[in-house]
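Lecture 7 notes: from sequence to structure.
We start with the chain below.
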Amino acid sequence: METIFALSSGAPPAGIAVVRVSGPEAGAVLTALVGLLPQPRRATAAVLRDQAAEELDRALVLWLPGPGTATGEDVAELHLHGGRAVVASVEVALQSFPGVRKAEAGEFTRRAFINGRIDLAQAEGLADLLAAETELQRRAALASAGGALSRQVDRWRDRLLGLSAQVEAVLDFGDEDDVSELPPSFQESVSAFAAELQEWLARPLVEPLREGFRVVLAGPPNAGKSTLFNALIEDEAAITAPTPGTTRDLLERPVAIDGVPFTFVDTAGLRDASSDPIELQGIDRARNALLRADVILWLGPEGEGPQDAWEIDAKADLGVHKSSARAQVSAATGDGMRELKCALVSHARELLPAGGSIALTRRQHALLEDALSALTFSGSDPLIIAELLRLARTAFDRITGRASTEHMLDALFGRFCIGK
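Predicted structure tokens for the same chain:
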């Protein structure tokens, strides 16, 4: 396996730049740069020189022999002065060593997975942790990155193995009186197991938390959508004008309110009659956006919005009100805006994973559904039951990565930055 390196800290210029080297040649590379191999796991001040003996930097270096490292391999860390020229010169020197190359996105974490330092569920949690921008996102990601879901899956897997052992006993010793058939408690255990999985499947998914609770503003032209959009995100991102059809495309902005992540979406005004092909395309995109919304704020005529949309009086300062309005606001004066934001935060908290709880991704949710389907059976044929239990176990193994496809791994680790 090749030795890889990358800048693992923030982009220069910075006070310190950390370059990480991982792989079988990490020790030899560090020795060549420093002149000797430092004591393991002890920060050592050293002068770094390239293969032509030119000084590169005066730095702190760490030698971390595997397998007890983040990647499970030998690792060297170079804590450099954080100037662009310093980092560039060290990277050039590293690339000059045979068998050493720059890492690809997510390659350090992928090696940690391959070498058994983390499993797939932990890697997914780590990706979410690196992308977390709010406290809710951080706490949910920490639960998965710390192995909480993995430990739960292991417990489920152990229960499956116990159930499988009972079935195998019937298959192997079915001619003996004491194991001629499965006991009544077997089906009770399976039913209880299936009920527990159903409870987990009822939990909120992690994607709305990761991507932001999606709030789509909809209504006819000149209903005040863009003005309200600007007020919600507290920025003049959308162009506002009295001319109908000013908004032609979707405009999205991620915003955190009281620690809850939102994605607000401004849309083109909805109307059937328009001779402008660009506006018609915008209207089509607006209708598609409604299908992906977690909540729709309807600023049009009362009762004409999508089902379950929130009726909003967006121009309350003009004295026109809806009898069923969920909120009465004036984006122009700011009246009612705080109340609307509080209502959105409260609604989102009900539908997003609770902070610190284990939240499933769509991939994990689908696999848990496969396991539940396998455990929802009728009949008593031990051969069929044994196969269904094996299918359930395979679903659990795919959650943690015991059984995974390269295509799925490429998609996951591609989410990471270079150097992680």
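Points to note: The first helix runs from residue 26 to 34. The chain has 14 helices and twelve strands.
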